[in-house]
Design a protein that fits this description.
Layout (H helix, E strand, L loop, with lengths): L6 H13 L4 H8 L3 H10 L1 H27 L1 E5 L2 E7 L3 H10 L13 E7 L2 E6 L3 E5 L7 H15 L3
Antiparallel strand pairs: 1-2, 3-4, 4-5
Helix pairs in contact: 1-2, 1-4, 3-4, 4-5
């Protein structure tokens, strides 16, 4: 005998699905609704499908927001100037984002490399990704923590990271 579910049951499933971190198995177990039933609702019920897709899109939006934080890092400011980092920008997150967005020149980049070359006097040339450059005025700008900042500045200047 087939079980009849109400619209409230479907809405409850979506609530549980969200609370279980978009895990269909966990949501089915918690509600007692089979995966087959959920799949049928997705095929046959436009309202349920829209609730389900809205929940998934919200999860994607949340993930994109978290990914943006990884790309930007968490700076420490003093009078609108970055003086350090609580969390440095994540180079891998920057790379993956640029590749996923199909930003020209980033499709085949395997690693963001930063090379520092002394150009004379107190000037240094910082090269990121083999093509983007910035002139640094002192070794202080290019110390270990400064390289990440310069790389981010270079990437941020040409690509919206």
């Amino acid at each position: 005998m087939a079980i009849l579910y109400s619209e409230k049951d479907k809405e409850k499933y979506i609530e549980v699905y969200i609370s279980k971190n978009m895990n269909m198995t966990e949501a089915c177990r918690a509600t007692g609704i089979s995966r087959e039933t959920v799949r049928n609702w997705l095929k046959e019920d436009g309202f349920f499908k829209s609730l389900f897709e809205d929940a998934r899109q919200q999860d994607i939006d949340d993930a994109l927001s978290m990914h943006k934080l990884l790309r930007q890092g968490i700076p420490i400011y003093d009078n609108d100037e970055i003086i350090g980092w609580i969390e440095k920008p994540d180079r891998q997150a920057i790379e993956k984002f640029l590749k996923a967005q199909k930003v020209e020149g980033w499709e085949d980049v395997k690693k963001v490399d930063a090379n520092v070359n002394k150009t004379g006097g107190d000037n240094f040339l910082v090269v990121v990704g083999g093509c983007d450059t910035k002139l640094a005025n002192s070794e202080a700008e290019i110390d270990e923590s400064g390289i990440d900042e310069l790389a981010r500045e270079i990437l941020g200047g040409e690509h919206d990271t």
